[in-house]
Amino acid sequence: MKVIDENTLQNNSTLTANITTGNLVPADLRVRAQQKLFNDHFQNYKPYSIPKAQLVIADIPYNVGKNAYGSNPSWYIEGDNKNGESKLANTEFFDTDKDFRITEFLHFCSTMLIKEPKATGKAPCMIVFCEFEQQFELIEKAKKYGLNRYINLVFRKNFSAQVLKANMRVVGNCEYALILYRDKLPKFNNDGKMVFNCLDWVKDTNSQKIHPTQKPVAVLEKLIKIFTDEGDVVIDPVAGSGSTLIAAMNCNRSAYGFEIKKPFYNEASKWIQERKTEIEEIKRYGWAITNASKENPTLFNVFSG
Predict the structure, then answer these.
(1) How far apart (Å, rounded) are the C-alpha atoms in residues 221 and 120?
(2) List of the chain residues with pLDDT < 50
(3) pLDDT by residue (tens digit) across 157-185?
(4) If residue 17 lies in a helix (H) or strand (E), which one and from where to where?
(5) How distant, in Å, are the alpha carbons of 110, 116, 150 from that of 185?
(6) Whole-structure pTM value
(7) CATH fourth-level superfamily of 28-63+100-285
(8) Is 95 helix (H, G, I), strand (E, B) or coil?
(9) Does residue 97 sit in helix, strand or coil?
């Protein structure tokens, strides 16, 4: 393996940026936490002996049926309504969405959240991304499982795929979520500052796209940092792309996820492992060698044998 000298690095801004930033993880980060994704339904959690969580994050199926891509450019060929509808128009995301049961989901979440502590400022909570009208069903059904209180969240995007619909003049640009908790206010970390319940949606242009409803890592990181401490446990019962586990890893939290669809599980597992390798390399060498070698193979001249 040819050693890259300092001048070579300085003359390659892309490589230098990747090395010095470590893809948002400092080189001295101690990797204490662990992240595990299971190719199974969350109801089958018992054999995995996962610890209880300070925070549950989930992006549940919106149950929009054959309008799944109604607010997605994929409804049209090459994302342009001038080209006509694509094969995804009038289709569902997944055949399993209609089988999702909110009561089963809430039972699992209430079971897997840590007990309400005596001390203030330590209580757990869950955050559920959902369709607008699902909020009301979640609020009512959550009470049956001891999740008596809620705070609604609105995420404001600076874009809307609905502008492709010629028959619409008021277009949606928001995502909705609920913070559900028992009685005591959840753990809250924001340097003593308040957080508005209307937050900006940070578009993710860096992460690989695995799942059609994948949430941005930066948005998940913000929520994880606010409602947990380093070393706390985060659970995602419907993990999809694994972006919750990636965000937790970046924040040095343990995370456990369940994904029943094998293709998503495989891609998410690959992404998680690549990120683990990257962090370990930053910890060991001060920079992510594997990523840098992929982006700049000619600079490394690695030969086998």
Answers:
(1) 23
(2) 1-29, 31, 64-65, 68, 303-305
(3) 988 766 555 566 788 889 999 999 999 99
(4) helix 13-21
(5) 15, 10, 10
(6) 0.79
(7) Vaccinia Virus protein VP39 (3.40.50.150)
(8) coil
(9) helix
